[in-house]
Amino acid sequence: MPARIRCPAARGLGAAMGPSSTIASRSATLLWPATLAASTTTARQYASMVESAFAGMSTLRLPDDYVPPTKPPTARPSDVRKSQLLRTYTSLLRSTPLILIFQHSNLTATEWSAIRRELNIALANVSPPGTDAAEIASKVQLQVIRTRIFDVALKLVEFYDPSKVASTTASTASGKKVKVTYNHDLSKAAYEAVQAVTKGDTPLPATSRYAELSPLMVGPVALLTLPAVSPDHLAAALSVLSPSPPAFPAPSRRKSPGYYDPIAQSGLQKLMLIGGRIEGKVFDIDGVRWVGGIKGGLDSLRAQLVGMLQNAGLGLTSVLEGAGKSLWLTMESRKVMMEEAEKPAVEEAEKVVEVEKE
User: Fold this and answer.
1) Are residues 62 and 89 in the same domain?
2) Does residue 285 sit in the same domain as residue 229?
3) Phi, psi torsion values for 224, nearest 5 degrees
4) Are residues 61 and 209 in the same domain?
5) What's the total number of domains in the chain?
6) pLDDT, tens digit, for every residue of 85-112?
7) What are the strands of the beta sheet with 98-104, ordered from one edge?
8) Angle CA(161)–CA(163)–CA(164) in degrees, nearest 5?
9) Family, per the entry (predicted)?
């Protein structure tokens, strides 16, 4: 075993480092309580500041009858999907002038996609880019609806008048009293108006639009909505969704090969037109097709109406002028007859006067 070599330099290094490490540990021991005390003092100061802030805020209190402007009182929960669908349907009925109603038999997503694709192609054919017709075609929608909720929306649109709701008094956040009117579609006034009409055994008026449309709200229903009454777009939609030659023939296989795709044909066979709502009036299938068959669209219909009014005015003028002329001719002929009848008497009187003079 080799002899160990003594290293006094290492022992001296340890001796040199010993006092410094001891001083560092002692300084850390002396400094730690001061740091801990400072942090504790800062935390206490922050806590006192928070307590004083909350004490000042506790004096601010909203009035008991305060209602947030963004969340008015409702008869139905406003944060559920059914309520939002109801508001969507009422807005749709009030703002859409042309609605077609279809019954469908559980179409798949791929079938709906194929039908919408062919519908967009047909609408694009009658809508040159950059025109008003193209804007109408871009806003045409085919959507599936919840039948029961749409039935309630029909009642609201017809039997509820928001302008007749009386205003009430509420407080603002500052405590000021102001008059507000809660007449939205989810309000208590809307709920009571619908219940007052539909409850009991009282039958609805025969002229009611809801009474005409409610028999159609059975089973799965889909709507085709157009933002304007355009016979050209309506005819293009009918030729795809409900073809009936010769007025609305289906697209040819050469122009629209995708229309004869098995998926599209399967979906179209499950889709059936049952009626429509145009400018607030209910139309059956024949009425919808009559509107779609107007040649030249609304401009042509307006021109025909103007022509009819002009012809009616000319006819009335002719009748009035004819009556005046006939009366004038009658009076003139009577005048001539009376003058001819008076001539012999005048002549005899003149002869008598001449004889007396002689």
Assistant:
1) no
2) yes
3) -110, 115
4) no
5) 3
6) 999 999 999 999 999 999 999 899 999 9
7) 141-145, 221-226, 98-104, 271-278, 281-283
8) 75
9) Belongs to the universal ribosomal protein uL10 family.
